[in-house]
Amino acid sequence: MANYMCVNRTNYFKVTDAEAFKTFLLKVETDADEKFFVWEKEIDGKPHYAFGIYASIIGVQDKTEEADYDRFIDGLQEYVAEDDVVILFHAGHEKLRYVTGCATVITKNSVDILNIQDIAIRTAQEKLGNPEYSTECDY
C-alpha cells in the first residue's frame, strides 16, 4: 500500500491583517510536521501573500472539536481582502493508482472547487460531441 503524497500552494493575494493571517496559518493542522512556507511580495505598491506546504491540509481545530477543513476555508475567507481572491492549488497522488488536482477559489463571500478530472472529462465530452462520454481515470 502506498501513501498519499500532495502539495498545496496559493497565488499571491491581499489580506486584511497580515499578522493575524500569519498567526492563523500556524493553527492549521496538516498531515506532516512541516509548517507553511509563506511568501510576501509587493504588487502594485501593496503587500501580497502566498503560502504553500508539502502536505495535506487537515483543517483548523476549535476548543471542542477535531480539526475541520471548512474552518480552514472560513479562516481564509476572513483574511482575504474584499477585492481579491485566494486560489488554493492542490495536487497529489498515490503512486500511479490515482493522480488528483483541484483549485479552490476563495473570495470573502464564496468558495468554488474546480476538480481537474471533472474539467478534463467535460472537455473530452465537448471535443467528442458526446455528453455521455465517460472514462476510468483511477486504477
Write a compact overview of the structure shown:
It contains three helices and eight strands; from the N terminus they run βαββββαβββα.
Shape, per Cα inertia axes:
globular
Note the run of SSEs as H and E. Answer: EHEEEEHEEEH
The level of helicity is 10-25%
Question: How many beta-strand elements?
Answer: 8
Strand order of the largest sheet: 3-4-1-6-7-8
Count every helix, treating DSSP H or I runs of 4 or more residues as helices.
Answer: 3
Q: Name the structural class.
A: alpha+beta
Query: Which parts are unreliable, with pLDDT below 50 for 5 consecutive residues or more?
Result: none
Biggest β-sheet: count, sense, barrel? Answer: 6 strands, antiparallel
Arithmetic mean pLDDT:
95
Oligomeric grouping of the chains: single chain
Determine Rg (CA atoms, Å): 17 Å
Head-to-tail CA distance between termini: 13 Å
Strand content: 35-45%
Question: Your description of this structure?
Answer:
- With 139 residues, the protein is an alpha+beta fold.
- It is built from three helices and eight strands.
- The strands form two sheets. It has a six-stranded antiparallel sheet with strand order 3-4-1-6-7-8.
- A hairpin with a 2-residue loop joins strand 3 and strand 4.
- The chain is globular.
- The model has no long low-confidence stretch (mean pLDDT 95).
